[in-house]
Design a protein that fits this description.
With 366 residues, the chain is α+β, with helices and mostly antiparallel strands. The chain has helices at 47-55, 97-107, 112-125, 141-154, 171-188, 199-205, 223-228, 233-238; strands at 9-18, 21-31, 36-40, 62-67, 70-71, 82-85, 159-163, 191-195, 208-213, 216-221, 243-253, 258-263, 266-271, 283-288, 294-297, 306-316, 320-327, 330-337, 350-354, 360-363.
Length: 366
């Protein structure tokens, strides 16, 4: 295996129980050098526990944590080439910014002049030049976040572990800081594991996302994989809004590579690319994202993949109209963008709508 292919971090069958509660069950994943991998999942699913296991703050029940080829499972945190930024930052409030950032270097007995140079570099990296002499109490929440990041980077860890690093910040600052973290991470090429509750945060900064629930990895993949081809209903609903419409696969056409699906509201063709696991006669759910649907009036000409419904509700939101469409006993939510250029439908209007051939589907069972 060449160096490039060797993962920086490997989790091999990692399990963790607290008493008789098994929180993590045989988690295996491998993280290439330089990747930003995000853990997402509902509260209590074990994200922090898995991060603490990697950092050495929580003992593993069974399995292995391999860092750059070395099993580090038995090492204490300070003997690992990992650095964790806790949600609370854990900065020293009465010390100034420089001393906080240089703290670990001082413990390592690095000469003072070298520490000063390194701290200057780090201050510049996190856009805090000129604020080195301020105490932590006299800088803002966003700046504290930067100091915590700089302090963790000071010792040049092989893996950076960030547990909900932005949760103390207000919404606008969160967006600024997440972009900054991503840009710093890419610039120095550090392998990073990031934990968040925020699906949009995960989608926008990650190379890959690991979705955790019920103690297992539900799916690991790029943001596009997770959003466009979720492996189950849980994942589909976890990221963004999604509609499920029941159908049945009637046939498959080899030439066009299209499945023909019947629903109570019309027939649709699905391409195989997004649906490799399906087979003829499967009962399925079409996984329809609100922004992928187009609405037409009931007297417009029939197009492929057109289904019928009735407008139940509409909500104007400036850049889009959100329609609720009744389809039998289901409601489908649709976002129609550029409402200025399209017909506005009202409650009770019979309509047709198209779903794309690239629509993803999930088998009802399994
Ligand atoms: N030291 C502990 N002793 C006993 N149970 C624990 C301990 N730490 C965590 N747990 C339990 O393990 C489960 C996973 O906790 P964890 O903190 O990893 O979840 P999380 O995904 O980080 O949640 P959140 O999103 O709320 O931060 C929870 O049910 C929690 O109560
Ligand atoms: Mg947590």
């Amino acid at each position: 295996m060449s160096n490039k292919e060797k993962p920086m971090l490997e989790l091999v069958d990692v399990s963790k129980s607290f008493g008789d509660v098994e929180v993590l069950k045989n988690i295996s994943a491998s993280v290439p050098k330089g990747e930003l991998l995000t853990f997402v999942g509902p509260s209590g699913c074990g994200k922090t526990t898995l991060l603490r296991i990697i950092g050495g703050f929580t003992a593993i029940s069974s399995g292995q944590v391999i860092l750059d080829g070395e099993d580090i499972g038995a090492l204490p945190p300070n003997m690992r080439d990992t650095k964790m930024v806790f949600q609370s930052y854990a900065l020293f409030p009465h010390m100034n910014v420089r001393k906080n950032i240089g703290f670990g270097l001082k413990l390592q007995k690095m000469p003072k002049a070298k520490i000063d140079d390194r701290v200057d570099e780090l201050l510049a990296l996190v856009h805090m030049d000129g604020l080195g002499e301020r105490t932590i109490e006299r800088i803002s929440g966003g700046q504290q976040q930067r100091v915590a990041l700089a302090r963790s980077l000071a010792l040049e860890p092989k893996v950076l572990l960030l547990d909900e690093p932005l949760s103390n910040l207000d919404a606008n600052l969160r967006v600024v800081m997440r972009e900054e973290i991503r840009s710093i991470q890419e610039r120095i090429g550090i392998t990073t594991i990031f934990v968040t509750h925020d699906q949009y945060e995960a989608m926008s900064i990650s190379d890959r996302i690991l979705v955790l629930n019920d103690g297992i990895i539900q799916q690991i993949g790029t943001p596009t994989d997770i959003y466009e081809t979720p492996k189950n209903k849980f994942i589909a609903e976890f990221v963004g809004y999604v509609n499920f419409l029941e159908g049945k696969i009637e046939s498959f056409d080899q030439d066009s590579e299209l499945y023909s699906v019947s629903t109570e509201h019309g027939n649709v063709s699905l391409n195989r690319t997004n649906n490799k696991d399906l087979a003829v006669a499967d009962e399925i759910y079409l996984v329809i994202r609100p922004e992928t649907v187009m609405i037409f009036s009931s007297d417009s000409e029939d197009l492929p993949n057109m289904l019928t419904g009735e407008i139940q509700d509409s909500m104007y939101a400036g850049n889009l109209v959100k329609y609720t469409i009744r389809c039998g006993d289901r409601e489908i939510l649709i976002d129609q963008y550029n409402p200025k250029d399209s017909i506005k439908f009202k409650r009770g209007d019979k309509i047709k709508f198209t779903v794309p051939k690239s629509v993803h589907a999930l088998p009802k069972k399994g």
